[in-house]
Design goal:
This protein has 611 residues and is of the alpha/beta class. The chain has a five-stranded mixed sheet with strand order 1-7-3-4-2. Strands 5-6 form a two-stranded antiparallel ribbon. Strand 3 and strand 4 form a beta hairpin. It is globular and about 75 Å long.
Length: 611
């Protein structure tokens, strides 16, 4: 074998992954993709597929759809194994997507088989095609639909779990249902890579460096900076603008990778985007879409429309507009990463992976708003989104990006530059006219889709009633995956249908009822392993040793907690102990939870901002 030989071949995903094994060396970096990269990948795949898709034709026609090039990967082959030198981020993300598509079809009568792209078997032993030892347990848990704690795990495992959750949340509704088999056929056969194969690491790294180091291309942020500063003719203003730009970009960089680009997209969309691409074949990108990629070009092309005509305009755009909105964006993003008093709704929305909140919160702001006014507007918008998210979730309404982006875009335009009173009125009316209400909780239950929202809702409920009862509480603790004993969703009923045959005629009916919200709690890991299989009467006294929501099942809670009794009487909520937990008890608990949710997500929050 000539170690200096280089092979390069265009390969479909099917060709690239079908019963093939790839690994990485120990010195390779961790899997680091964030939600933004997953979102962009799914948006690109959706747009390219929809551009070719036509309803009603046989699936064989998919072969004639346009191809989509996903980039190149560089592989070093040695000792019969393929080592990824460049491209493991995309291959890892693609593996997560394929696992999601496999799981999405779990109950479908006819499936598009992608299992051979995920793993292969030899001598009755299964191993993943992305064959990396430290990730195998995590991938197996994701593939089999099991929960796994990231506590003590590597950065890669943390990110694998988080990105799979992201895919579950934002996979486009337009690609589900009858469209899904067509999309999966297209993904397998029409999405291509170029696989560059060498037979020594030295050659592989030479190619990698050649492809990446022949000059540093300017980012959209760099291009925008050059365009704006070049048009500020006064040297004093240009120096001020340069210093401001530099300092703000340093602050943005502390928030995360590519936060400068995220800010410009959010700001420009919030204040200037007036149109959005229709989701249909042949539709052309509009303001909202163009800003999402080459935003510097959009500013240049639309300079007159956004008021950039004179040197003074450019100076004001940087020193006043950029300065003001970047400051508030940084505050908002900090509040999304750390629970800050007064800006809690932002953190809650971020926990629900609602990235569209950032342009929406910037939309009503005006550069002349003082800090108090800006905070009121931010709280109003974030508070509305908090209600919107949870109401949709409990009614099993999707929150994926493609399904709600039009609604959020139109809202963004409607609330642009409103004063506090007008903004509160608009948002209050939006809530009043929502189709989804908390009455949906009557049948809200645990499944793979709702799991993340149920964890969120149970944490909010537990925190709320504890704080109202004068007990120190922490939403962050209840939702953290990294504490020593992370909280898990606990079924009050053990998974033993035979104990409930007096009330249920089939196991399917029992399973559906067992998974309802009223039959669930949050308890620390270890509790379920110790008591989860026991009948209710044996677990009841142990619930009294847990958080307040669990304690309320036990009679002792009503005898030993005067602060809780005060809250119970003041709120009028139908708390009651349950010495047994029958179907009727679960129904009562479900109604209690609904009323707690009504109290937490009360639209009266809008009125409070007007005081």
């Amino acid at each position: 074998m000539d170690i200096h030989k280089i092979d390069a071949h265009a390969k479909s995903i099917d060709d690239l992954l079908s019963n093939k094994k790839y690994t990485i060396d120990y010195y390779q970096r961790e899997y680091k993709w964030e939600k933004q990269q997953i979102t962009e990948l799914l948006e690109d795949l959706e747009a390219k597929f929809i551009d070719s898709y036509e309803e009603g034709h046989p699936r064989s026609k998919v072969e004639q759809y346009r191809h989509y090039f996903l980039g190149s990967i560089i592989v070093s082959t040695r000792d019969g194994r393929k080592y990824i030198i460049d491209g493991q981020q995309r291959l890892t993300s693609l593996t997560l997507l394929l696992i999601y598509l496999h799981n999405l079809q779990r109950d479908a009568p006819k499936k598009v088989d992608v299992s051979n792209l995920i793993f292969s078997e030899k001598f009755d032993t299964k191993s993943f095609n992305l064959d990396i030892d430290e990730r195998a347990e995590c991938l197996e848990a994701i593939y089999s639909g099991q929960t796994m704690s990231a506590n003590g795990a590597s950065e890669s495992v943390h990110n694998l779990l988080a990105r799979y959750d992201d895919i579950t949340d934002i996979f486009p509704e337009t690609l589900k249902g009858t469209v899904l088999p067509y999309f999966m056929d297209w993904l397998k056969g029409n999405v291509d890579f170029v696989e560059i194969t060498t037979y020594s690491d030295d050659e592989a790294y030479n190619i990698f460096e050649t492809m990446n180091n022949r000059g540093l291309s300017l980012s959209p942020t760099d291009m925008l900076k050059g365009y704006l500063l070049a048009n500020i003719l006064d040297s004093g203003d240009r120096n001020k603008a340069t210093d401001l730009w530099k300092n703000r970009l340093l602050e943005l960089a502390t928030l995360g990778k590519e936060e400068d680009a995220n800010f410009f997209k959010a700001w420009l969309r919030a204040k200037y985007a007036d149109s959005i691409r229709e989701r249909k074949k042949g539709a052309t990108p509009k303001d909202f879409d163009i800003i999402g990629n080459p935003f510097h070009k959009w500013v240049n092309d639309e300079n007159k429309r956004i008021g950039l005509k004179s040197s003074m305009d450019f100076s004001d755009f940087v020193l006043k507009q950029f300065g003001y909105f970047s400051e508030h964006y940084i505050r908002i993003r900090q509040a999304s990463q750390e629970l800050i008093p007064g800006l809690e709704y932002i953190f809650y929305n971020a926990h629900n992976n609602f990235t569209l909140q950032y342009p929406l919160m910037l939309a009503p702001l005006q550069a002349g708003d003082d800090l108090d006014t800006a905070n009121r507007k931010i709280r109003l918008v974030a508070g509305y989104l908090d209600i919107f998210i949870v109401r949709r979730a409990v009614n099993f309404r999707t929150l994926d990006y493609s399904s709600i982006v039009y609604t959020m875009f139109n809202l963004m335009k409607e609330i642009r530059e409103l004063d506090v009173a007008s903004l509160a009125e608009v948002l209050k009316n939006k809530v009043a006219t929502m189709d989804e209400t908390f009455h949906g909780i009557a049948r809200f239950h645990l499944n793979l889709w709702s799991q993340r929202y149920i964890r969120h809702i149970l944490a909010r409920m537990t925190q709320h009633i504890e704080e109202q009862s004068g007990i120190e509480s922490s939403f962050v603790t209840y939702t953290s995956r990294t504490i020593k004993k992370p909280f898990e969703i606990e079924h009050i009923w053990s998974n033993k249908y035979e104990q409930h045959t007096d009330e249920f005629t089939t196991k399917e009916e029992f399973d559906e009822y067992r998974n309802r919200l009223g039959g669930l709690l949050l308890v620390p890991r270890g509790f379920n392993q110790s008591f989860g299989a026991k009948p209710y009467h044996e677990k009841l006294s142990h619930y009294y040793g847990q958080n307040l929501l669990a304690k309320t099942l036990d009679e002792q809670c009503y005898q030993m907690n005067p602060s809780f009794r005060t809250y119970q009487n003041k709120s009028g909520l139908p708390f009651r102990p349950h010495s047994t937990f029958t179907k009727n008890d679960l129904d009562m608990r479900q109604e209690l939870y609904r009323q707690i949710c009504e109290e937490i997500w009360n639209p009266a929050r809008f009125e409070r901002e007007l005081v």
